[in-house]
């Protein structure tokens, strides 16, 4: 897919390990599926474990210096994590401001921002060590006051939706599409997505690109 000047559209995907494609999966990553569908150039700027705080520190070199046409912003999975009972890594207020700053920087660079809500997590049973789910790696006690880890994650997702509305940013709401699927099939460890998850991500983001972003660029 090319712009009116004949140059192929350049898309930077900016996020964490769900964005990052390590090339070692048995299935196609959602970014690969998007490249096949649209024929755009995709630069992967996903870094495992990243929060919006860490992302902002590298947005210039990893994103803006590539002079993209479109930037997919996908953060939240690590922002919501707690390091202790009252130890928030990134507060909701910080997360909201960081997203707004990212949107502003992308627009100032002449690119179109697109916000992508992260998919759900499968909390699982912390006492079942035979299955690799969220609570096998995160202490469930940290999330009691939030109503559970998923309920806390959904608060961050709601913040992204609010920022998208306030700033008039296209939103690929992957989270909204998740509930029709079994999370044990959608994820492979309670967080990182399976073949099914990658297909859904590509479908939701692809629809947003086709309907909300590309018509204004082409």
What does this structure look like?
The protein has 218 residues and is of the alpha/beta class. It has a single domain (10-217), classed as 3-Layer(aba) Sandwich (Rossmann fold). The protein contains 7 helices and 7 strands; from the N terminus they run βαβαβββαβαβααα. α1 (30-38) packs across α7 (195-217) and α2 (52-62) runs parallel beside α3. The longest helix has 23 residues, at 195-217. 41% of the residues are buried.
Layout of helices and strands:
Elements (H helix, E strand, L loop, with lengths): L9 E6 L14 H9 L2 E6 L5 H11 L7 E5 L7 E3 L2 E2 L3 H17 L3 E5 L32 H19 L3 E2 L1 H5 L4 H4 L8 H23 L1
Parallel strand pairs: 1-2, 1-3, 3-6, 6-7
Antiparallel strand pairs: 4-5
Helix pairs in contact: 1-7, 2-3, 3-4
Q: What is the CA-atom radius of gyration, in angstroms?
A: 17 Å
Order of helices and strands: EHEHEEEHEHEHHH
Q: Could you tell me the mean pLDDT?
A: 93
CATH level 1 name: Alpha Beta
**Overall number of domains:** 1
The second-level CATH architecture is 3-Layer(aba) Sandwich
> What portion of residues is helical?
40-55%
Strand content: 5-15%
């Amino acid at each position: 897919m090319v712009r009116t000047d004949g140059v192929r559209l350049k898309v930077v995907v900016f996020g964490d390990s769900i964005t990052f494609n390590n090339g070692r999966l048995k299935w196609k990553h959602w970014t690969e599926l998007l490249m096949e569908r649209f024929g755009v150039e995709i630069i992967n700027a996903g870094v495992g474990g990243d929060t919006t705080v860490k992302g902002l520190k590298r947005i210039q070199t990893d994103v803006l210096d590539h002079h993209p046409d479109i930037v997919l912003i996908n953060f939240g999975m690590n922002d919501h994590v707690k390091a202790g009972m009252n130890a928030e890594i990134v507060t909701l207020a910080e997360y909201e401001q960081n997203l707004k700053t990212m949107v502003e920087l992308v627009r100032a660079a002449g690119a179109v921002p697109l916000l992508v809500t992260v998919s759900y997590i499968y909390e699982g049973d912390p006492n079942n060590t035979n299955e690799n789910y969220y609570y096998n790696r995160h202490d469930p006690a940290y999330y009691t006051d939030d109503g559970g880890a998923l309920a806390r994650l959904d608060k961050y997702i709601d913040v992204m939706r609010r920022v998208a509305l306030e700033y008039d940013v296209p939103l690929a709401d992957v989270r909204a599409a998740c509930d029709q699927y079994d999370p044990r099939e959608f994820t492979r460890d309670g967080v990182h997505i399976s073949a099914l998850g990658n297909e859904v991500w590509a479908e939701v983001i692809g629809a947003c690109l086709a309907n909300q972003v590309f018509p204004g660029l082409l």
